[in-house]
Design goal:
The complex is a heterodimer of chains A (176) and B (67). Chain A is mainly α and 176 residues long. Chain A has helices at 9-45, 56-86, 93-123, 131-173. Chain A is 81% helix and 0% strand. Classes of the chains: A mainly alpha (176), B mainly alpha (67). Chains A and B meet through loops of A and α3 of B.
Chain lengths: 176, 67
């Protein structure tokens, strides 16, 4: 199967990413709506802002909203890369810039999850969760932290290789 | 610190056009222009040999090292 160019695997991935982008936008909008309604509901119940309760679900939704927005940015950058691959622009310098953005965003997501992990550690003492549930949730968040951090660093390394490849290609093109 | 290509000087001395030289050494006019304007990253021995052959000169006449 053709990997690069028109009617290839990369052009199909380009379409899938665009669909994914729209889905995440819709999910993010609905999550934001839910969060806004929850907060508004709490405000209407407790007129004084200080009485608003921070529950685990609100924190989880806020985290997913933030990471969702960053994920949108990552997918947007992937779309740009695959658009270049679709147009057979393999050694475009912009691809390196997009990879850098993806790497940074992925590390940002891991930081957000890291903050969530610390908040969970502090707030679990207050909440009603039992020990097995709290350990399981913390473990799950820790897996997210490690996964996104590894992905971000991995992309950063791949970006360096890509940069070298662009340099070699440029050198080869300018060898007469 | 750079290697300068003095191809245009030799070409002027030999009264040869870019088009003619490109055709004689078997490269495109665009690539010859890259060489002349010092935008090239490297030059193949085979290309250098053909240039020297056509322009009847030494590699040192074409390439110059400037500090």
């Amino acid at each position: 199967m053709k990997i690069l160019g028109q009617k290839s695997l990369s052009s199909k991935i380009y379409v899938v990413l665009q669909i994914l982008f729209v889905i995440i936008v819709l999910v993010d909008i609905s999550v934001f709506g839910f969060l806004a309604l929850t907060i508004l509901g709490q405000i209407s119940k407790n007129i004084i802002m200080e009485n608003i309760e921070i529950d685990p679900i609100t924190i989880a939704i806020t985290t997913f909203l933030i990471t969702g927005l960053i994920a949108l940015y990552i997918i947007g950058n992937f779309i740009q890369i695959f658009e270049n691959l679709k147009n057979s622009k393999l050694f475009d310098k912009n691809n390196s810039k997009y990879l850098k953005n993806i790497s940074r965003s992925s590390i940002a997501i891991s930081i957000v999850y890291c903050i969530l992990l610390i908040s969970l550690e502090l707030l679990f003492k207050v909440w009603y969760f039992g020990i097995p549930e709290s350990v399981l949730i913390k473990l799950l968040v820790l897996v997210f932290v490690i996964a996104f951090l590894t992905f971000g660093i991995g992309i950063k390394i791949l970006n360096e290789i890509y940069k070298r490849a662009i340099e070699y290609k440029e050198e080869s093109d300018l060898t007469i | 610190m750079a290697i300068i290509v003095n191809l245009d000087v030799i070409m002027a001395k030999r009264k040869i056009s870019s088009q003619e030289l490109a055709e004689k050494i078997g490269i495109t006019k665009a690539n010859l222009s890259i060489l002349k304007t010092n935008k090239g990253k490297a030059i193949r021995f085979s290309t250098l040999e053909k240039i020297c052959e056509v322009l009847e000169c030494e590699p040192g006449d074409i390439l110059e090292y400037k500090k």
